[in-house]
Write a structure and sequence with these properties.
- The protein folds into 3 domains: 108 residues, GMP Synthetase, Chain A, domain 3, CATH 3.30.300; 89 residues, GMP Synthetase, Chain A, domain 3 (2-Layer Sandwich), CATH 3.30.300; 117 residues, 2-Layer Sandwich (GMP Synthetase, Chain A, domain 3).
- It is flat and about 65 Å long.
- The strands form 3 sheets. A 4-stranded mixed sheet has the order 1-6-7-8. Strands 4-3-2-9 form a 4-stranded mixed sheet, with helices on one face.
- With 386 residues, the protein is α+β, with helices and mostly antiparallel strands.
């Protein structure tokens, strides 16, 4: 049964710039970035529990620095997960296997500070103990979803291309084609817009960790001559200003050089700053946490609005109270690119209760390691995208 919701009374200003010509920039980070290492470990722990018990309640936070990985949070599950093994395998898959550096799969120590989920939270979230006998939201909060017609993936072009660059770096590293590439990397793409339409890429920044045997000019030649033309496709042209490893060297990287924490790359995880973001991060959280599941569903509904031709740009905001299934409010914005009233009526047909979202998107399966890197949106193989 569809949920009928009151429209949010607060009117948010359009996120689309008023000027007809402007440049918008988004960034991406690779799976070897310290924060993304933490996100991947957290999602690996989540998947390990869901594989054994699909009703697991997991809120896992991770900190990585030098040779230490700290796991913290609340986990209630019938599963029995060997955290050390999961952590080391996640680090190994990312590519930190060199025993000569502080942070490596077999060399790290794993510290655990984990307790069970609070009974006060569980009584409102679990349908059996909820006073309304249905699953309530795992916390209060606001979530956003966004879609636009700039790309076939219905994603903003700058973040889409930035992810293509960092993912391309990872693929080239794993293939062995460029053996000097290392796991830590960042990219940044600036796109010129005219009348709110992307017309050209103006600037590309790539910083990639590398072996000591390679020099900065050779890395720049690789980015300009191979990586960018291959992954940017038709958006690559001779007028792009490339900036590659601007400090000169990037030999020491990852948690050996910088501290990583879960949930610090929420803009790269979503829309690159082109749309608003709610208050919560995604990784390490099971789908009872609406920070994650409702954000995925808002993206799903926004995609449907654009796919149905109701608007070229759609943004959904939903708000919840802890322990209550039905959202407090639902707001739909099309920024003048379509019929907002029709889009609103369309969105109201969807059931935004946590249990309905989880069932519709199949969120109790161990799918979350696949979401961690290169954006939670705009990639095939995810139920809220397909």
């Amino acid at each position: 049964m569809a949920t009928v919701l009151p429209e949010a009374r607060a009117v948010s200003p359009s996120s689309l710039p008023k000027s007809s010509t402007y440049t918008f920039t988004s960034e991406s980070v690779s799976e070897g970035h310290p924060d993304k290492v933490c996100d991947f470990i957290a999602d690996s722990v989540l998947d390990a529990y869901l594989e054994q018990d699909s009703s697991s309640r997991v809120a896992c936070e991770v900190l990585c620095k030098d040779d230490t990985v700290v796991l913290g949070g609340e986990i209630s599950s019938r599963g029995h997960v060997h955290h050390d093994e999961v952590v080391r395998e996640a680090i190994r898959q990312i590519g930190y296997t060199d025993p000569a550096v502080a942070f490596s799969a077999d060399g790290v120590q794993v510290l655990k500070f984990i307790s069970r989920q609070s009974a006060d939270i569980a009584q409102g979230v679990d349908a059996e103990s909820n006073s309304n006998h249905e699953q309530g939201a795992g916390d209060q909060g606001i979530m956003f979803g966004y879609a636009c017609s700039e790309t076939s993936e219905l994603m903003p072009l700058p973040i889409f291309l930035a992810h293509r660059l960092t993912n391309g770096l990872a693929e080239d590293r794993r293939s062995g084609k460029y053996p000097w590439l290392r796991p830590d990397a960042k990219s940044q793409v600036s796109v010129l817009y005219e009348n709110n339409k992307p017309v050209a890429v103006t600037d590309v920044l790539v910083s990639t960790q590398h072996g000591a045997e390679i020099e900065q000019p050779e890395i720049a030649d690789y980015v300009r001559g191979d990586l960018a033309p291959r992954v940017l496709g038709d958006w690559c042209h001779g007028g792009i200003q490339f900036i590659v490893n601007p400090t000169g060297n990037f030999i020491l990287g990852g948690p050996s050089a910088d501290c990583g924490v879960t949930g610090r790359k929420i803009i790269a995880d979503t829309y690159g700053g082109a749309a608003r973001h709610g208050g919560g991060a995604f990784s390490g959280k099971d789908p009872s946490k609406v920070d994650r599941s409702a954000a995925y569903f808002c993206r799903y509904v926004a995609r449907q609005i654009v796919k149905q031709g109701l608007a070229e740009v759609a943004e959904i905001q939903v708000a919840y109270a802890i322990g209550i299934a039905k959202p407090i409010s639902l707001k739909v914005e099309t920024f003048g690119t379509g019929d907002t009233q029709e889009a609103r009526e369309f969105a109201y047909r969807f059931d935004f209760r946590p249990s309905a979202i989880i069932e519709r998107l199949g969120l109790l399966a161990p799918i979350y390691r696949r979401t961690t890197n290169y954006g939670h949106f705009g990639r095939s193989g995810l139920s809220w995208e397909d």
